[in-house]
Amino acid sequence: MSDEIRARAEGARAAALQLSNASEEERNAALGAIAQGLEANAGAILEANRRDLEAAEVLLTEGRLTGALVGRLKVDDVKLRNEIVRGVHSVRDQADPIGRTLAATEMDRGLKVYKVSVPIGVLGIVFESRPDALVQIATLCLKSGNAVLLKGGSEAFHTNRALANILIASTRGLPGIPDGWMHLMEAREEVQAMLDLHHLIDLIIPRGGNELVQHIMRNTRIPVMGHADGICHVYVHAAADVEKAKRICLDAKIQNPSGCNAAETLLVDRDIAGEFLPEMVGRYRRNGVEVRGDGSTRSLAGGEAAAASEEDWATEYLDMVISIKVVNGVHEAVEHINRYSSNHTDAIVTEDRAAASRFLREVDSASTLHNASTRFADGFRYGLGAEVGISTNRLHSRGPVGLEGLVIYKYIIEGNGQIAGDYLGEDAKAFTHRPLAETWTPQS
Fold first, then answer.
1. Positions in the chain whose pLDDT score sits under 50
2. Helix/strand/coil for 27
3. Strand order of the sheet with strand 122-127?
4. Which of 102, 118, 217, 377 has its Cβ near the most Cβ atoms within 10 Å?
5. Buried b vs exposed e over 247-278: b needs ≥16 C-beta within 10 Å?
6. 167, HSE (Cβ side, Cα atoms, 13 Å)
7. Shortest CA distance to 366 belongs to which of 342, 349, 339?
8. What confidence tens digit (pLDDT) does each residue in 121-131 have?
9. Using CA of residue 239, residue 245, residue 246, residue 250, what is the dihedral sign?
10. What is the pLDDT of residue 396?
11. Are strands 122-127 and 232-236 parallel, antiparallel or unpaired?
12. For the whole model, what pTM was predicted?
């Protein structure tokens, strides 16, 4: 098993070197071919997904899968054409992230240094449940010139295999696109084998629950980018527009409760709680949301809320459950969020610009929002085309990770015979370090 994964990683390393030098036109043509391949093979994809859903329903009745995970698993014709294929076109239409000059400096006359964006190399990505993530991840890697080893959840086995086969077949033999740019792994044992290949794989991105992410972080020397939990908050400030707040709070919870950017905790300012909370709790209950609240919330909710525990404030439900707490102003709201949040996505609802500005600055999360649902924290909705995941790390990329998060940079120096010794000693030449408004352009 480990020898097979090593061979795949070595193939991916060789492919990455070729893919990084493919032209934008070649990479875009490959993405166009993928979109066509997905549409042409829609029947095979939906049939594979039907098989996965049947198996998932059995696991659901046995208590081995949650309803939220089964919901994430489903692919129908509308999702395939309106989300998955559309997402491929969106990635294709993004600006090329490779070869951009990020900075240019004259070190001395005739000696210039350019900071130029380049692919990371080989990525290992582990994701759970959502087969559409396979297409998002693979196409982002292709556009950004990275090779990728993918491992999806076993619950999406047939759908992942069908999608991977279509992507590989659609790009086979195309100019500039090497074989081996993408590999699908299907056995759990393959993940650990991949985690041992720190000399061949440059970055691991896990998309899944806390247990998966923590396991990967503990068992590899490869850098890991991602988020463990999505404990997201909405804070309704005293100066909130009540009707606006009700719409935002409901959407943030129920639009897709299994999403990592769904709200798990609602904080309500004490000065508005009496007016806002009874109706808001009623709306949640009418929409099938279980409400857990602190003492103030329960007294205002008229028996519609269960008691929230300390554990609830630090829980990612990924389900139709929300915890509610009444707080005394912005300071207490920010303190609560920074204590319990997973640094993912948090929102404030208010008409007070100063309060909003304080919240947006002081909450230490990858995305902070004012008068908008937390569900907007998404690579496609941010205009990134798609995302490989959401990062809460303090790495080069934070929040939804699209194309820009999949490139790093190198320094390219253009000289004319200069040597470092000329800049040392009594008669040393001086560096000019003058910023340049120019780009580095490779010559064919």
1. none
2. helix
3. 182-185, 147-151, 122-127, 203-207
4. 377
5. ebbbbbbbebbbbbbbbbbbbbbeebbeebbe
6. 29
7. 342
8. 999 999 877 89
9. negative
10. 73
11. unpaired
12. 0.80
